[in-house]
Design brief:
- By secondary structure, the chain is an alpha+beta fold.
- The chain has one domain: Jelly Rolls, CATH 2.60.120.200.
- Helices cover 18% and strands 38% of the residues.
- It is built from three helices and 16 strands.
- It has a seven-stranded antiparallel sheet with strand order 3-6-15-8-9-10-11.
- Helix 1 runs antiparallel to helix 3.
- The longest helix has 24 residues.
Length: 270
């Protein structure tokens, strides 16, 4: 057997140690090791109370401030016992890192004298009106002036968008549901929002500077119904679709592949 000298082993040991350290650093910096985390719900299955409803791995389950929210017939609505009060529902989001992109798609139709609000809060069971960041205040059917407002928060602060549904820039029909698509880049600290109603679509925000919103502000998705019509009404307020994605930036994927590649190389050398 050909002897292996100690001075030849040293570089190999150093290489192994270097690969392990580099792989660990790559995986640490990638934030979300498992790639995209997705929760999608059409609310067509498992009817009943919204409170405790299961979401997806990496997300928390729905929690409510009261028992008003219910799921049935493919919708989140307010039950017939508690029509006109503040009702909040939240679920925890995966912890964002500075290299993640958060995407939210929600389809909603407000109906009632006051509003439906949705956005993000730092803690569970908080009202967007009091504690929300980058949230939408939406009035629709039975409101004197159906409109969309966007507030950067926290709470009722930082109004950056305000348009009635009849505004030519929107031309939305209050009787139809509206789909909102959020995209928040944690690395660029920008927020974009597109709204679609029937055949009309409008960009509400395009790479808005959201640097004033802390990452902790995106800890929970929050939904608020205030003074909204009941599920038993002819035109109830409802949400019938939610999809949330937390996706590492492309550079993060490259770093993750780097770490996995190094670990694979180390295994082969062994």
């Amino acid at each position: 057997m050909k002897p292996t000298h100690a001075f030849l082993k040293a570089p190999t040991v150093a290489l192994h140690v270097g690969l392990v350290v580099l792989a660990a650093l790559c995986l640490r910096d990638s934030g979300n090791v498992y790639g995209a985390l997705v929760y999608e719900d059409t609310f067509s299955a498992d009817p009943g109370p919204l409170n405790g409803r299961t979401t997806a791995p990496g997300f928390g389950n729905w929690t409510n401030t009261d028992g008003a929210f219910q799921v049935g017939s493919g919708q989140i609505t307010i039950n017939s016992n508690t029509p006109f009060d503040y009702h909040a529902a939240t679920f925890a989001l995966p912890t964002l890192t500075v290299s993640d992109t958060l995407s939210l798609t929600i389809t909603v139709r407000p109906s009632g004298p006051i509003f439906t609000g949705f956005g993000f809060t730092p803690n569970a069971d908080q009202y967007v009106q009091n504690s929300g960041y980058d949230w939408i205040y939406y009035t629709g059917l039975n409101s004197p002036t159906p409109a969309i407002q966007i507030l950067t928060g926290q709470g009722a602060q930082g109004l950056i968008y305000n348009a009635e549904l009849t505004n030519p820039a929107l031309n939305f029909d209050a009787s139809l549901p509206t789909t909102f698509q959020y995209t928040y880049s944690a690395s660029a600290k920008t927020l974009s929002i597109i709204a679609t109603n029937g055949t009309s679509s409008s960009t509400l925000l395009n790479n808005f500077d959201a640097s004033a919103t802390p990452l902790s502000g995106f800890s929970n998705f929050a939904l608020q119904f205030q003074g909204q019509a009941l599920s038993t009404d002819t035109f109830p307020a409802y949400v019938d679709y939610v999809k949330v994605e937390v996706v590492p930036e492309p550079t993060t994927y490259a770093i993750l592949l780097c770490g996995l590649g190094m670990m694979t190389a180390l295994r082969r050398r062994r």
